[in-house]
Specification:
heterodimer, A: alpha+beta, 4 domains, four-stranded antiparallel beta sheet, 11 strands, flat, B: OB fold (Dihydrolipoamide Acetyltransferase, E2P), 2 domains, 30% strand
């Protein structure tokens, strides 16, 4: 029953998305106001039906309704309720449904924002209504494409007559991170569709006004903020669950999320130019299309199984092909609109008085540098695919490539992030305040070196450069706190993120060792005493827990209890790491394999400053939220 | 050449400059950091220098895992059903390392070319997960 209702709800949603896509476009062509007005009710209708489908699938998961294949494949009656409710996005079909639901929520949000915002009052209301309907039409097209993808290749409501017991949710996903990471990431990915739709609507109307720039920038910032949160949560999850103490593995799917993130940064900065100086509009439009394409490409890479990755769980070539065709059609259409309109819609009103040392120039440089950084990651990610397609054998591009290539680029970007604070809008005379710059640089270098010496008693070239550049950014941006709060907070967050990445990798200590109970080992200033082991039993697993005591200079610090769990349904072994977190260092303990009873291999990590990575990301998110909020207050 | 053209020239040259730096960095970095994927059959049929660093992929042969009595050393045999390579690794093996399952080891052959010295053995994230290239290689070898 549930599966039938679910499919019907999806079909209704498809129908509404078709109306939402076609009627306004047709109405625009025929100058028919009634047709245009259909956009909003159709969008709301679609949202309601998607919501129904989503709730139905959630109910099926909650009740362990194993007549639905997808539920049987990803749930089990013994699974804790919270994971049963979220197991919906544990695999391919459900996560596409979540994707569409979030797109609908964004559409409704856009609709509400547009009707509540005072932007409408300022300019011709009639024209704005058309703009609004066209934006909804573009969103309808995207939604229609993905709904047909869902219904044709991966319907989550497919039922089965076989008696199934439930294959359980992948144990790696049974973690707090899994509950919040995918929705946040998808909110980020999908949010760029709104900025994209706004831009396409403006292009169709031939009206790339300041309203367009303000609106699309606001949604781009919102999307970017959620994407930042989603990526940070993903890396936190990997750190806690995978048991290797790493927070970023340059896995193709991680890169796939980083690509729209970087393009989004470039976009947000270039849109400032479009909004304030009425310039660089074609660059901004191009960036929006690229960001959107990258967020779809991310979905394609994850879902198609073309890349070898930890996230690819749907190795179905038809799905990959379908998505690739979808991507091709959407992007070709977007570029066609762009190419047709860009020659006519842009007056040549570029900055007349531009010198090297002006803020306009710095924003352009920033956009270009970040765009290039994005391209290098894109190349590294797709390189194995390209070589394989050309029959040069199968290779993989390792983390050292990305580290080596990104480091100098990040340095360069950080230098400019600090320098920008010395520049002024529209500055016609190039007076570069060398003395001030040199003074700040010197201060940051000295403080970086002394800090490093105090912390680690070792000086490393890269560490010094990174730390002094981070301090350089913080010193230079703090003064903008009153004018641009969001920007200041986000930039400081970035500096803290870099400090975290750098210091945690430079000061990291790790040890793999074989240890019997009753013995101890040292790492850094800490002693790890292996006290005992005991059996444990959870709702859907059983296993062994080890008890460790950690001491520093004979003072008790903490007890840690890493576990080795067996999930019998999937017959899968999982390491549950134990972490003692604090702001300046993490102690991280993972059980390896038992050699004999009470004789284990264990992995120990001492990770200074690793929390700063997520702290920095959270600060960036706060900065993003601030700039959305502040913008609202200003307009 | 008017002002506008001059400006555009500046942008284009800046962009080209950045692109040139980036692409030279990339080519250098790619050259150093590519891991070539090799199956046991390819090792026996070709001669790889002992310093050549690559990824070995295949299946852990059933009953071949031998642990040292002291320390973390472990030896096992990686097979693609036609050829076999002995692997030595010192360290903690990932959770999903099992006899009869797929595995990828990164490292190099030892000086006598008898044994593969792994510096890293990769965690697989699904019990049914077989790396795509291992799967393809094994399928091709069977044909």
């Amino acid at each position: 029953m549930l599966s039938l209702f679910g499919t019907i709800a999806l079909l209704f949603a498809l129908f509404f998305s078709f109306l939402q896509a076609v009627l306004p476009l047709w109405g625009y062509r025929r100058d028919n106001a009634i047709m245009l007005a259909f956009a909003r009710p159709a969008a709301y209708g679609q949202c309601v039906y998607i919501l129904i489908a989503y709730v139905l699938l959630t109910i099926a998961f909650a009740n362990s309704d194993f007549t639905i294949t997808y539920v049987a494949a990803n749930s089990h009656p013994n699974l804790p309720l919270i994971y049963r409710l979220t197991a919906l996005w544990g695999s391919h079909e459900g996560s596409i449904l979540l994707w569409i639901l979030i797109l609908n929520v964004w559409t409704v949000t856009f609709s509400l924002c547009f009707h509540l915002s005072p932007v409408e009052e300022r300019i011709n209301i009639e024209k704005n209504k058309i703009f609004f309907s066209l934006t909804l039409a573009i969103l309808g097209i995207i939604s229609f494409c993905f709904l047909s993808f869902l219904l044709l290749t991966s319907n989550p409501f497919v039922s089965t007559h076989e008696l199934q017991t439930g294959h359980d949710l992948n144990p790696l996903l049974q973690d707090l991170g899994f509950i919040i990471h995918p929705p946040m990431l998808y909110i980020g990915y999908v949010g760029f569709s709104v900025a994209f739709a706004i831009t396409q609507a403006a292009l169709i109307q031939n009206n790339l006004s300041a309203t367009w720039a303000i609106l699309s920038r606001r949604f781009a910032i919102a999307a970017w903020t959620f994407l930042t949160l989603g990526i940070a949560l993903g890396s936190w999850w990997a750190y806690r669950v995978l048991g290797w103490g790493g927070f970023w593995f340059w896995d193709p799917v991680e890169n796939a999320s980083l690509l729209p993130w970087l393009a989004g940064i470039a976009l947000i900065h270039i849109l400032i130019l479009a909004e304030k100086r009425d310039a660089s509009k074609n660059w901004a439009v191009l960036l929006i299309i690229i960001t959107f394409a990258l967020s779809i490409l991310g979905t394609f890479l994850v879902r198609s199984g073309v890349l070898v990755s930890v996230h690819t769980f749907a190795n179905d070539p038809t799905r990959g092909l379908f998505l690739l065709v979808l991507l091709g059609i959407l992007i070709t259409a977007a570029f066609a609109v762009y190419v047709i309109r860009i020659s006519t819609s842009l007056s040549i009103n570029q900055f007349q008085k531009i010198t090297f040392f002006s803020r306009e120039m710095f924003l352009l440089i920033n956009g270009t540098l970040i765009f290039i950084a994005m391209l290098t990651i894109l190349l590294g990610t797709l390189y194995p695919l390209i070589l394989e397609a050309l029959h040069f054998g199968s290779i993989s591009v390792g983390a050292p490539y990305f580290n080596l290539v990104m480091l100098p680029q990040v340095f360069l970007i950080m230098i400019f992030m600090g320098l920008v604070s010395y520049s002024h809008w529209e500055s016609s005379i190039a007076i570069i305040p060398w003395r001030k710059i040199a003074k700040k640089m010197l201060i940051s270098c000295i403080s970086a070196i002394s800090l490093l010496w105090v912390i680690s008693h070792q000086l490393d070239w890269i560490a010094i450069i990174c730390l002094s550049l981070s301090i350089w950014i913080i010193l230079n941006t703090v003064q903008f706190y009153r004018i641009a709060t969001g920007m200041t907070i986000a930039h400081i967050g970035f500096a803290i993120l870099i400090i975290g990445i750098l210091l945690s990798s430079v000061l990291n200590q790790e040890r793999e060792i074989r240890l019997k109970t009753g013995y101890s080992t040292n790492l850094g200033p800490y002693n790890f005493y292996f006290l005992s082991t005991e059996g444990i039993k959870g709702t859907n697993y059983h296993g062994i827990r080890a008890n460790f005591e950690i001491r520093k200079n004979q003072h008790h610090i903490a007890y840690l209890h890493p576990e080795k769990r067996i999930y019998p349904v999937r017959d899968m072994v999982m390491t549950k790491v134990a972490i003692h977190p604090s702001i300046f260092r993490d102690l991280y303990l993972a059980l390896g394999d038992p050699f004999a009873e009470d004789d284990w291999s264990i992995r120990l990590y001492y990770k200074p400053f690793i929390r700063w990575i997520w702290l920095g990301a959270i600060i960036m998110v706060i900065g993003g939220l601030f700039s959305i909020w502040q913008r609202k207050r200003l307009t | 050449m008017n002002k506008l053209h001059k400006q555009r020239l500046i942008y284009v040259s800046l962009f080209a400059f950045g692109l040139a730096i980036a692409s030279s960095l990339i080519l250098y970095a790619l050259k150093q950091n590519i891991n070539v994927f090799v199956t046991p059959k390819q090792i026996t049929s070709s001669h790889l220098a002992s310093h050549y660093y690559f990824r070995l992929g295949g299946m852990v042969k059933k009953g071949s895992v031998i642990r040292d009595t002291q320390g973390l050393g472990v030896q096992f045999i990686v097979t693609d059903l036609t050829a076999e390579v002995a692997v030595r690794y010192v360290g903690v093996l990932p959770d999903l390392f099992r006899e009869g399952k797929g595995v990828i080891a990164e490292g190099h052959m030892n000086a006598q070319k008898q044994q593969f010295i792994a510096t890293q053995v990769f965690a697989k994230h699904d019990e049914n997960y077989m790396p795509k290239n291992v799967y393809l290689a094994m399928r091709n070898d069977r044909n």
